[in-house]
Design a protein that fits this description.
361 residues; alpha/beta; 13 helices; 6PGDH_NADP-bd; glyoxylate reductase (NADPH) activity; NAD binding; oxidoreductase
Length: 361
Amino acid sequence: MSCLVKSNYSHQLSSTAMAMCSSFCPQIPNQLRARPICPFPTKPQFTLSVKAFSSETSNASSKADGLSTRIGFLGLGIMGSPMAQNLIKAGCDVTVWNRTKIKCDPLISLGAKYKSSPQEVAASCDVTFAMLANPESALEVACGEHGAASGMSSGKGYVDVSTVDGATSKLISGRINATGASFLEAPVSGSKKPAEDGQLIFLTAGDKSLYELVAPLLDIMGKSRFYLGDVGNGAAMKLVVNMIMGSMMASFSEGLLLSEKVGLDPSVLVEVVSQGAISSPMYSTKGPSMIQSTYPTAFPLKHQQKDLRLALGLAESVSQPTPIASAANELYKVAKSHGLSDQDFSAVIEALKAKLQNPPK
């Protein structure tokens, strides 16, 4: 069996108060997109011969001489399914699990194996990835009855790519480490389309050796990766990023509605914004559909509000004022109350429309 691995780097393999580490490691160098072919036989343990890489130049890529691993993937929702699919299409040996088995069927048809519990997946695989919707689900799948930790042992690795708070990540890490296995948190920046295209950004922290071992797998699923030090730092970085994103979308929604109300064409506003200093792919991608009041789900609104809530908890733990994010969070809560939880987070604009139609007396 062979796999295609991106060679953009050296191929080395709920919600409670948080105590976050504050030292961050340097950024990993920019990626190359070349895909050399490497053998990927099935063996009980995963191994990789390690080569040094340069942080000075994008040409400093090295090839894995020998890589073999059995990969587990837990959670096949809007993000997990395309991530696992990219691993399968790359020729990797993947075993999947999801609470609703029907979501596993498309991946099984592509060649994935199936196990009936996270424990069985972890027991049969060398490294197990988990992509769950919230801290409660992440903790249950990792540490609950028949959870992944029950199937972990020395020499195995657990990589949680869910977005959770630092306290939850540390709880999971402690439970995994107690089995003798290694833990890496690796929340992703990106939504449905980047997940499908293998363009995610991994924000990793935890066991450095495990990070080096799974780097080729992260490169299949993503375009870049950062190693940020101790467990909790990856979670913190992801929450800060999504706090900014949620606030940006709320402000963008206000701008679209204001432009229309004063007689401007909101489509032109999208074009102007897209060519200026505040240009963002989010505006140019989401803007046209928002103007049409359609919100195809790439990142569910309920998850954006959850991330804002967790980010506000993080800020509270270090006495950091966040008035803008706090106001944005309230707007997303209003949107949820209007039944928009499963719509894309850009549907937050509907909460503003509701306020316009029903102004306070």
